[in-house]
Amino acid sequence: MTTATPGQAVVTGGRLDRVLSALAPAARRGRIVLGVVRPLAWVLIATAVALWIAGLQLGWRELTIAASVVTAVVVLCTLFLIGRTAYDVVLDLTRDRVVVGERAVGAVTLSNPGRRAILPSRVLLPVGAGRGVFDVARLAPGARIEELFAIPTQRRGVLDVGPVSVLRGDPLGLFERVHRRDEPVALYVHPRTVAFEGQSLGFLRDLEGLPATDLSPDDVSFHALREYQPGDDLRHVHWKSTARTGTVMVRQYEETRRSHFVIGLSRNPADYAADEEFELAISAAASLGLRALRDSHSVEVRVQGGQLPAASGKQFLDGLSALAPSRPRDGAIADLAGVVAASLPTASVVVLVCGSPVDAARLREACGRLPYGARTLVIVADAGADPRLRRIGDADIVTIGGLDQLPSALRKVLA
Fold this sequence. Notes:
This protein is of the alpha/beta class. 32% of the residues lie in helices and 30% in strands. It has four domains: 8-81; 88-190, Sandwich (Immunoglobulin-like), CATH 2.60.40; 211-256, no CATH class; 260-414, 3-Layer(aba) Sandwich (Rossmann fold), CATH 3.40.50. It contains nine helices and 20 strands. The termini are far apart. This is DUF58 domain-containing protein. Keywords: Membrane, Transmembrane, Transmembrane helix.
């Protein structure tokens, strides 16, 4: 048995690396060549090879003629791949954010920066899982053409529009050469929302927030009077009581919480009877969040598995556009309420949003886990149902069958 020395192993490894490096460009070219061949072309190539072998082996002239015809068709189709596709491509969306049901309008502009004409070709515009095709005529040097398009939106989501690809191929679809000329653009399809009348949602009763049980020497919610202690602010002395009792009395206040609006939106499939309810719940949460943001409240949005950004209305709606159902093991509405209590203990208003399968017992459990002292509202999305209002403990439970029912239902709660 011959044993290789370490030096010989290094030399062998070096030669192997050089061989692989030399073969890499050829492998890339091979992948490019194979990438232009469509499945139908492979079928015809295999058929031509079989006919040639059978014709020559059996001496049948008919098989040889058929093989010649198939071969000629394949060769002629390869000629359609010849030609430049060096377009300058610009993809422009009029709006990259639309509401469900609206059409997103845009344009693809192609120009020929070269000195030679570009032969007719096709342009592919992927939109989500689908794609649009534009036939582009011969483009002279320096010429430019603009193709307008409209994208209908039937569902909430985030669609990748592009990248624009220039396709050159034959009429039979045997070969297809694709060149990507642009980067994709994200199109956000926002959920439907409904506007509320009035200056606020009506949950908050004072200037800054809801009063808490903690006492404070300086706030906006007056609580009681007490005797003066060294260090108290003289501005809070109650002079009438001081004159009457003969003892310096100062005002004491209840500490108030700043308006902290929290939305707990369940995305567990078990909390909804159908996809329609899930979309209704998202639209209701979006409407409430936008109203709170317009009222300058601090808004937090919690879902199973994390939180959604809500620093602005656009950011909030973008996050809802990409929201998808969670896995059942991520927890239901009661687990989400526990997360809200653990991460946001100072919330002043909590709105839980779920679907019709969540019964009264589960709602009671969820509301019981929320931060103590927070005003609680539960929105139940029950597609097609009549609106109704009920109470479970200190929580108001509002059931809506459509988004247009939300404003009137909330007016009953806040009456």
